Amino acid sequence: MTHLVPAATDLAALRRRVSLLAEDRPAVYRMINPVGQVIYVGKSKKLRTRLLTYFRASFPYDKAARILTAAADIRWDYQPSDFAAHLSELRHIKSHRPLYNVRMNRSRSWVLIKVSGGPAPKLYVGNAPSPGDVMHYGPFPSPTRVRDAVRTLNDLLGLRDCVLNMPIAYPEQGDLFGGERRACCIRYELNTCSGPCGALVSEIEYRRKVRAAVDFLEGRSIKPLDQIVTEMDAASEENEFELATLWRTRFDSIEWLFAAVNRARAAIDSLSFVYTEPGAYGDEMSYVIDRARVRAAAPAPRTPIEQEAFKALVIEHSGRASSAGPIPADDVDETLLLLSWFRNHPGAIRRTIPFERWLAPEPQQEPSPC
Predict the structure, then answer these.
(1) Domain residues of the chain, as ranges?
(2) Dihedral of CA 266/268/271/273: which sign?
(3) Beta partners for 123?
(4) Nearest CA among 11, 3, 89 for reference residue 52
(5) H or E stretch covering 188
(6) At a CB cut-off of 8 Å and minimum separation 6, what does 39 contact?
(7) pTM
(8) Cα–Cα distance between 268 and 140 in angstroms, integer?
């Protein structure tokens, strides 16, 4: 099939340069358009082999061909290992936000529970971090089950699930709205939303409900579960067995969510150590990883002086992240990357050393007898 080539791009020359200069080793590469903008960032264990596949792609059907025909240059940086390439690729994408990198190639099998900011915060599910004052919890597998559990939690606490930019009116703001209440959605009639859009709940009361949800997501409270148990027992005592069964279904959903929240937090907490990754050419790197985020990196220390210098990095960068609270939005993608890396490379965990062992004092040697 014929390749359509922009006049500004000499693909033959570009291919020749790749063939002559690129090596088959781990690297991160960047496609640059004619005005110098990075339009795509990629990584490969074997750079030369990967780049040459772009020149065999068919335009316009293959994404690789569309990227190449929009590029005027290809630049790359070799990396010591595949892990380093993954990490560098992620940071380049966050820095340049290239046009052809969609959602940072994030897997859709994981989702996050988010709590928005604004006058009436909203609890919802998404698979990409949001900017601003949104709080993120997770990540969680089983997107459908997470959405069902969040819907149950919203219904239980009376939290809104309408669009983020829905106008909000609290009763204490009555003078601003002429004292007239707006109509609410059916959820208010079903007693599953407290109606912050219609001035039917005070701001203090609504934020108390949001705080109950946040305390639940952070493992500080099980009040939603207690509430369900109370309602379930009351229905049983009144011989309303269908209602009791409904409450039991809700209990199962919220109990699963509580366990999932704790598993997610434990998984992140467990990724706190020094990790050493062998290099493709013997250039080993050691990484200080604290709660699934790379905080510092340096060539693997070999001599006593290098070990002391690396120990200073461990002291400086370990134990800084709190195990409670949401994941900072800027950390979400790297957290997902590290969780995925150690899940897909189980042997990598054998190359880790806990911070405690790195920071333990050296044992004193017994003096030799005279």
Answers:
(1) 12-105, 118-250, 271-359
(2) negative
(3) 115
(4) 11
(5) helix 186-189
(6) 31, 32, 33, 67, 70, 71, 98, 99, 100
(7) 0.85
(8) 12
Model pLDDT for residues 120-163, shown as the tens digit of each residue = 999 999 988 888 889 999 999 889 999 999 999 999 999 999 99
Please give the average per-residue pLDDT across 282-287, as a whole number.
92
The dihedral built from the CA positions of residue 80, 86, 87 and 92, taken in this order, carries a sign that is: positive
Instruction: State the Cα–Cα distance between residues 351 and 341, nearest whole angstrom.
Output: 13
Residues 40/63, Cβ–Cβ less than 8 Å: no
Say how far apart CA 136 and CA 334 lie, in whole Å.
13
Task: Round to whole Å and give the CA distance between 338 and 268.
Answer: 9
Q: Rounded to an integer, what distance in angstroms lies between the CA atom of residue 45 and that of residue 89?
A: 12
List, in sequence order, every residue forming a beta bridge with 27; answer none if it has no partner. Answer: 44, 78
Q: Phi, psi at residue 57, to the nearest 5°? A: -75, 155
Question: Does the structure show a pLDDT above 70 at 106?
Answer: no
Mutual angle of helices 143-157 and 223-237, in 10-degree steps: 70
The CA distance from 222 to 71, in Å, is: 54
- Which is nearest to 102 in space by CA: 39, 34, 35, 29? 39
Q: How would DSSP label each residue in 212-241?
A: HHHHHHTTS--HHHHHHHHHHHHHHHTT-H
Helix (H, G, I), strand (E, B) or coil at 89: helix
The CATH code for residues 12-105 is 3.40.1440.10
Shortest CA distance to 133 belongs to which of 117, 145, 122?
Answer: 117
Encoded tokens for 283: 């250039």
103 close to 75: Cβ distance less than 8 angstroms: no
Per-residue pLDDT at 59: 86
CA distance 310 to 312: 5
3-class DSSP assignment, residue 152: helix
Amino acid present at 363: P
